[in-house]
Give the backbone structure.
Amino acid sequence: MVIAVYPGSFDPATYGHLDVIRRASVSFDRIIVGVLHNSAKSPLFSVEERVNILEKATKDIPNVVVQPFEGLSVNFARENHAQVIVRGLRAVTDFEYELQMAQTNRVLAPDVDTVFMTTSLQYAYLSSTIMKEVASFGGDISKFAPPEIIEAVRNKMKG
Ligand code: PNS
């Protein structure tokens, strides 16, 4: 049984994240999506809201669970008996940071491997930050995430 964790901020999840989760769910027996609770950052959505959003968006994929986590991704992986950390790679601009993180994680936990999934082309430009930026100026974000997430972003920005 190969268990993979997919750690991230997911503030909030986009079609790009959901695409990685769906594809990873085919290659691994179980995917545990880890939503980082980082007290140093001030996210748009609380960690509970981000978990909730992801649970709803992945409810039709039976081998996916969503959990909040704090601290190191490798500890989250080990606590969940995961052998693999999954990360999405959109473009070369992601590569340097992702490589550094994967190498650091390898030093910290040689028993946990990082597997990169290349983002599907139609989502290669997309990020939660871009989605929030467009939404903050009233732009159309309907191509960036499923309707429930769009609604959550709109409500959050209204209130
Ligand atoms: O969605 P993001 O913000 O690109 O995800 C980044 C994340 C959460 C994977 C990364 O910041 C992370 O793993 N944070 C936890 C602390 C840690 O393990 N850092 C890696 C050692 S360099």
